[in-house]
Design a protein that fits this description.
By secondary structure, the chain is mainly β. Helices cover about 5% and strands about 45% of the residues.
Amino acid sequence: QVQLVESGGGSVQAGGSLRLSCAASGYTDGSNCMGWFRQAPGKEREGVAGISSLGGRTYYAESVEGRFTISQDNTKNTVYLQMNSLKPEDTAMYYCAADSSFGGGACYAAFRLRADFGYWGQGTQVTVSP
């Protein structure tokens, strides 16, 4: 059974940084599309950043481009989201998502189009104060 375990959320002042981690266990497929969605109260879920272990274009939401960086350690089946220059509007619950059926370019599209991923983490809260 695949499990996604997130860590690294918290509270920070505007301009600060946080690093989220998501470790996947139980995968038997060597390929994976992983990344992050977020949802703030009263707003729709949005894809934040996504990356494929097969390579291809990395996805970033326009609102985080240049401030957030997603990276992966395939040996550990873990993805990281380095969030710098945080803004109050980044406040949300952040969810890790993974699905091995989205490969390469499909992974980019899956985050951009907010596809239904097969596996989700429990969520980690990020709060940015002014």
